[in-house]
Design a protein that fits this description.
It comes from Brevibacterium spongiae. By secondary structure, this protein is mainly alpha-helical. It is built from 14 helices and no strands.
């Protein structure tokens, strides 16, 4: 079952990379019109396919293996960006991606050695339900705040990591016990399913605003690092999925997480689009312009809601 989960998660990673590029390009680079609507809806369809593939994969394998495989989407994203969007593959970009992938795969190699079946109790499911509802509300408020690109990516990763952990609980209950097994959690199973839908919608909206104020590769890098870390933390803290972790293994997980986060930071600093924008803002800029540039991240993030609303509205009218 684990091999099937890996194959499905890899397919989901490819769809994630492709869908991210479609949606980011539609939201940030295309003029309103039929092509923009079609591009956005294509990305939406791919994101829906990602969800289906990940749900099945999370039912077949542990979250510590399934979620980090999403990091492969970074490789797919770079290849897609180079082929279709003219992305320049300079040394800083490649090194940033390599550092991110090393951190993620070190994390999954360590955590997978200690993963075992979850123990879902009514209390743990209730706590997870409360966390999902709180994150949904916070993500909604965060999306209309003046936060910059990276904070939005981080918050989205936290939301989707929690959604992944909850989806794992729901899917495993069906795979292990079948549909009658849902009775073990009773109403809480359906409440948790509803909360997953709510948090997914909030995360989806938040990631749209992240697309509008930063490159697709940064979004993918942040999600593929933060998402599995959060999912593993929830699995360990709420459901005992990683009991038996030694101090050395815990130290290795923390180091791997730090390396992965460092890779995301490098990517946010050295991505060609970021370097190009930084360079074009320097020569001959007047003092007032420099002040405006200094406030650009917050202003861009705030303004991101407007094009995203138009894009979402066009998508729903098709």
């Amino acid at each position: 079952m684990i091999i099937s989960a890996v194959v499905l998660a890899t397919a989901a990673a490819f769809c994630l990379a492709l869908g991210t590029h479609f949606q980011q390009h539609a939201v940030a680079a295309m003029a309103p019109g039929l092509r923009r609507r079609a591009t956005w809806l294509t990305g939406l369809g791919l994101m829906g396919l990602v969800t289906v593939l990940n749900v099945i994969a999370l039912g077949l394998g542990p979250v510590s293996i399934v979620q980090p495989i999403g990091a492969v989407s970074l490789v797919f994203a770079v290849l897609i960006g180079r082929r279709f969007f003219g992305l320049r593959l300079g040394a800083p970009l490649l090194i940033s991606i390599a550092v991110t992938l090393f951190g993620v795969f070190s994390f999954v190699t360590t955590s997978a050695r200690f993963a075992h079946d979850i123990v879902a109790t009514e209390q743990s499911v209730t706590w997870l339900l409360a966390v999902l509802v709180a994150l949904s509300l916070f993500a909604g408020l965060f999306s209309i705040s003046s936060a910059g690109h990276i904070p939005r990516v981080v918050m989205t990763g936290i939301v989707f990591g929690t959604v992944a952990a909850a989806t794992h609980v729901l899917a495993r209950s069906v795979v292990v016990a079948g549909l009658p097994g849902l009775d073990a959690l009773g109403l809480r199973w359906w409440l948790l399913l509803t909360a997953v839908g709510l948090a997914s919608a909030a995360g989806f909206w938040l990631v749209q605003t992240a697309y509008a104020c930063g490159p697709a590769e940064t979004v993918l890098a942040g999600l593929t690092v933060i998402d599995p870390i959060v999912a593993v933390i929830i699995g360990a803290g709420f459901f005992g999925e990683y009991t038996g972790l030694t101090p050395l293994a815990t130290l290795g997980l923390l180091a791997s997480a730090g390396i992965g986060v460092g890779g995301v930071w490098m990517l946010s600093r050295f991505h060609p689009k970021v370097l190009s924008a930084r360079t074009s803002a320097l020569p001959g800029a007047p003092a007032a312009g420099a002040a405006d540039t200094a406030t650009t991240p917050a202003a861009t993030a705030t303004a991101a809601a407007a094009p995203t609303l138009r894009t979402l509205h066009q998508g729903t009218q098709s």
